[in-house]
Specification:
By secondary structure, the protein is an alpha+beta fold. The chain is about 55% helix and about 15% strand. The protein is built from 12 helices and 12 strands. Helix 7 packs across helix 9. The chain binds adenosine-5'-diphosphate. The site of adenosine-5'-diphosphate has 24 residues, from helix 9 and helix 12.
């Protein structure tokens, strides 16, 4: 980031300043060359007009004029004759010598020229002098210092370098600042996610401020909370399963030890003990079977075997199957159907789900009570109601009874023989059918379970 921002911030600036100094240099070079050339021409013109070169009597005046001009413009002016021999030099150095710089040779050949000599930091401009018959009788060379301009450009460059450094510092400060508001929270989130992925589900990201990172942190926290819940329920489940299986196992252990340690046991006692062992084994089998059903239902690969299900017939069959239980407790199980209802569902699974509800209705209703099963439907859904006159479920318990192994009253349920998995199975099946289940109950007020199931399966 630092490097990127630095490059983005500084490179254009360097490029710009380099270009600007070059443009400035070119501009000054061009205008100065023109100016000096113009001056050279002007001087050549006045020499020509006043005939200074041909008329020796005017030499003093000529000299005076040249030195005035030279001082005024800060030029060095050199005048040569047609043989390139210096006749006047405002620096008084080259008089009488041949002065063969390229500009003079070019001027003597009849052309004006101006050049910048960067080594001397000076502009050389020359112009030729003619007599009345247009013969080239000499040339003027004007040397103008360019060092002021060089100085100016280098000052401008220094200012640019200074600005570049300042902007560089600002960019670095900004990047450091940005990294604090962007990368620090990100690092924080990342560190927590690493801890979470190593199994520390109690970790949460500290939430500060209100920006995209807070949203990210909140999302991660919610996810982690969910993971923690799943992890907890998994642990609970394992401990519940062990506990549920431990009880019948200890009974079997006690019963079998009793038989082993006693001599001369009566055959009837043996039988009684074995019956007890047998029923404990049945109970364990029931728990394992229910667990297997649940596991199958919760497995994502589980597929529903969808077909048309005649709900009324299905409910009548369930009631008939459970008749021995209801008759045992002298419970009247009635059925009421407002209309014929046919839905798209998995009949075997749905039958198991509703059967659990009717079974519970019978189980948790005292002798001589009643259970009413009814069915109704609107355009979209079918509603199956299982209502009993039993012990009811308090409001706090209602939200928990669909949990695996949850029982309101542990001791009583041992008597009724439930595994605590029936409603969990029912709930899973109804969810698989995109339905819902509602409880209306209160302690001692009987319980009503209303199952809503869509008539048609949505194509997913
Ligand atoms: P169980 O095998 O113990 O019946 P379920 O999952 O079917 O397990 O039910 C869970 C618990 O919900 C039961 O132990 C019971 O306490 C309560 N319950 C379920 N149905 C009823 C009902 N119709 N009336 C009262 N309590 C009920």
């Amino acid at each position: 980031m630092l490097v990127t921002y630095f490059v983005i911030g500084i490179i254009p600036l360097l490029f710009y300043s380099f270009n600007l100094s070059k443009t400035l240099h070119n501009y000054f070079e061009d205008t100065n060359e023109k100016e000096v050339l113009y001056q050279a021409n002007k001087i050549a013109g006045s020499i020509q007009k006043a005939e200074y070169l041909t008329d020796k009597s005017k030499q003093d005046l000529f000299w005076k004029e040249l030195s005035e001009k030279s001082i005024e413009e800060n030029f060095r002016i050199i005048v040569v004759d047609s043989n390139a021999v210096v006749v006047a030099d405002t620096n008084n150095m080259a008089v009488g010598q041949m002065y063969m710089v390229p500009e003079i040779l070019v001027a003597l050949a009849g052309r004006d020229e101006a050049n910048l000599r960067s080594d001397e930091e000076a502009i050389y401009a020359s112009a030729y002098i003619e007599d009345a018959r247009s013969n080239k009788i000499g040339a003027v060379l004007v040397v103008s210092s360019f060092s002021d301009i060089y100085q100016l450009i280098s000052e401008i460059n220094q200012k640019w370098i200074f600005m570049t450094v300042i902007i560089g510092i600002i960019v670095i400060a900004l990047v450091v600042f940005m990294s604090q508001i962007i990368f620090d929270p990100l690092k924080n989130v990342l560190a927590t996610i690493k801890e979470i992925s190593s199994g520390q589900f109690h970790q949460r990201i500290e939430i500060k401020g209100n920006n995209e990172f807070t949203e990210l942190a909140e999302a991660v926290n919610t996810m982690t909370q969910r993971l923690e819940e799943v992890d907890k329920s998994r642990q609970e489940f394992v401990s519940n399963v062990s506990h549920e299986l431990k009880t019948p196992l200890s009974s079997i252990k006690v019963l079998s030890e009793a038989m082993l340690l006693q001599d001369n046991i009566h055959e009837d006692t043996y039988k009684e003990f074995l019956q007890d062992i047998n029923s404990e084994v049945d109970r364990m089998t029931e728990i394992v079977n229910d667990l297997l059903s649940l596991a199958k239902l919760e497995n994502n690969e589980n597929r529903l075997n969808i077909g048309e299900v005649d709900i009324n017939k299905m409910l009548r069959d369930i009631i008939k199957r459970l008749q021995p239980l209801s008759e045992n407790k002298n419970i009247n199980v009635s059925f009421e159907a407002v209309k014929d209802v046919v839905i798209e569902a998995d009949e075997v699974k749905l039958s198991l789900a509703i059967s659990n509800l009717v079974d519970n209705g019978i189980k948790y209703t005292p002798v001589d009570g009643r259970v009413k099963v009814s069915v109704d439907a609107d355009n979209q859904d079918c509603f199956i109601t299982v209502q009993d006159s039993g012990i009811g479920i308090s409001e706090q318990e209602q939200s928990r009874i669909f949990e695996r192994f949850y029982r309101v009253d542990k001791t009583r349920d041992r008597e009724t023989g439930g595994t605590g998995l029936g409603l969990a199975i029912t709930h899973s099946i109804i969810m698989l059918h995109n339905g819902s289940v509602k409880i209306i109950s209160g302690e001692g007020q009987g319980a009503t379970f209303i199952v809503r199931l869509p008539l048609k399966r949505k194509q997913s």
